[in-house]
Amino acid sequence: VLQAWYMDDSNEDQRLPHHKEPKEFVSLDQLAELGVLSWKLDADNPDTDPELKKIREERGYSYLDVCEISPEKLPNYDEKIRSFFEEHLHIDEEIRYAVAGSGYFDVRDRNEAWIRVWVKKGGMIILPAGIYHRFTLDEGNYIKALRFFVGEPVWTPYNRPHDHLPARGEYIKNFVEKDV
Ligand code: KMT
Ligand code: NI
């Protein structure tokens, strides 16, 4: 449901796994040290799932919508796919919960190496404000994700470099410079 690994540096198809040789996996605890939180939830019952309800209440995720990525369902599909894969940050958390399909959320570690996080059905991920990241579909070419937000959603991506933003400074202070 949730797996993470360091990426190779080949420029091949972004939808391929891009494992290093040999594979180098990253634990969910290591992700948490970068501020990336994740849960495995019951994706067949998101409406009644007490665990999801608790996460939403504790973190104040009042807003919810559904984002389905497929050529049929997403307007401007090709352009969106391209822009999701541009390295960027947000000034708020990016919260996604895969209820069908799967995809890769790539995040930068402390040393700027790419970690690929494979989120499959039942996987929920929170990227902290200010982390540089990108998204791509995998070879399955489909994801249906719930998107959450605290209050009115703002999805603005700030493509790298946007290091002067307060959210970036906060992220660095909390997760890059901190000894863990
Ligand atoms: C984003 O912000 O990158 C997206 O919404 C795409 C991933 S959501 C499945
Ligand atoms: Ni994003």
Compact description:
The strands form 2 sheets. Strands 1, 2, 3, 4, 6, 7, 8, 9 and 10 form a 9-stranded antiparallel sheet that branches. Strands 5-11 form a two-stranded antiparallel sheet.
What key attributes describe this structure?
single chain, 180 residues, alpha+beta, Jelly Rolls, 9-stranded antiparallel beta sheet, two-stranded antiparallel ribbon, 11 strands, 19% helix, binds 4-(methylsulfanyl)-2-oxobutanoic acid, binds nickel (II) ion
Can you describe what's shown?
- The structure is a single chain.
- It contains four helices and eleven strands.
- The chain has 180 residues and is of the alpha+beta class.
- The protein has one domain: Jelly Rolls, CATH 2.60.120.
- The two termini are 26 Å apart.
- The relative contact order is 0.24.
- The chain binds 4-(methylsulfanyl)-2-oxobutanoic acid and nickel (II) ion (NI).
- 4-(methylsulfanyl)-2-oxobutanoic acid binds next to strand 4, strand 6 and strand 10.
- 4-(methylsulfanyl)-2-oxobutanoic acid (KMT) binds next to strand 4, strand 6 and strand 10.
SSE blueprint:
Layout (H helix, E strand, L loop, with lengths): L1 E5 L18 E2 L1 H6 L3 E4 L9 H10 L3 E7 L7 H8 L3 E2 L4 E15 L5 E7 L2 E5 L5 E5 L5 E7 L8 E2 L6 H11 L4
Antiparallel strand pairs: 1-2, 1-7, 3-8, 4-10, 5-11, 6-7, 6-8, 6-9, 6-10
4-(methylsulfanyl)-2-oxobutanoic acid (KMT) binds next to strand 4, strand 6 and strand 10.
